[in-house]
Amino acid sequence: MTQSFNPVQEWEQRRDQATRYYQQGKLQESLALATKNLELARAISDRAKEGYTLNDLGLAHLGCWQPQRALECFEQALLVAQDISNARAEATALSNLGSTYSRLGKFSQALKYLDQALKIFRRLQDTQGEVSTLNDVALIYTKLGEPKRALLLQHQILSMRRLLGDFSGEGTTLNGLGFAYSILGQHGQALEFLQEALSIQRAVKNFVGEATTMNNIASVYSDLGQPKQALLLYYQVLLSRRALQDRSGEATTLNNIGYTYSILGNNWQAMKFYKQAIAIYQEFGDRLGEISSLLNMGNLYASTKRKKKALSCYQNAHELSQQIEYQPLSEKVQQHLDSL
To answer: Which residues touch 311 (CB under 8 Å, ≥6 apart)?
Structure first.
């Protein structure tokens, strides 16, 4: 007796597997399954499943640092959700659009989409969706150099996630809290939250989250004047991120390794890692990351009296900062230019 073909069951099983791959950092595998699921959803004319799959595809593209392709998927998902009057799916697509614009450094656009998503999630009393969106808003505040504002939100999110019993999400928020405290220079509190986050991420096998948290712990060690300990951790993180094919994370860690070598006075090694980081940032169009590495390179050149090279780095950073909607960043770059 042959088993009858059940496309809905096939779609659901494939989506579950794609989600597992995504959580394990196997982004190409997740992308391949989501692509097949989109074809299936369209073949059976299931608009709701088409919308869900477009969101899944967008997340996989975002994980692979393909933000333009992610935007296309999320915009299509938004149209589908609006066509079939699926408010929850509409809010999810809006939230994902906001998250993608945040990655691109377009913060005012990001906050606009996230605010729209929050209104819908709150109307639906969808706490999980609200929490996820608030987390993206908190990340923007951290990126914009407003850690106190981010901290207020992160503490609110932590309480909500604990009420929901969202153990995995709790790990993400604890990492966010630790990162914000490290920016404020409160290193003891930062390490406390980051170690707690690490325990949860290991328990739930969130490998991408674990690498992010270890990277943040290494940064705290660097700030505490323990660059050698930071370097050991960064190299572990670099191996993990390469194994996970997390190119965006890899660039961040390469930049951090470069900075740590500059603290240790090994300028040649520092420059080598900055250049590797910039190559990846340029490949993916990550302007924020590229600006960070260019400023670090410029500082290194300036400290070794190579003013022309320092000026070139600062000018390149200045040009990029004009493409990002954030005045304090432009001012920071201008201060570097003025210091020469």
So the answer is: 298, 337, 340
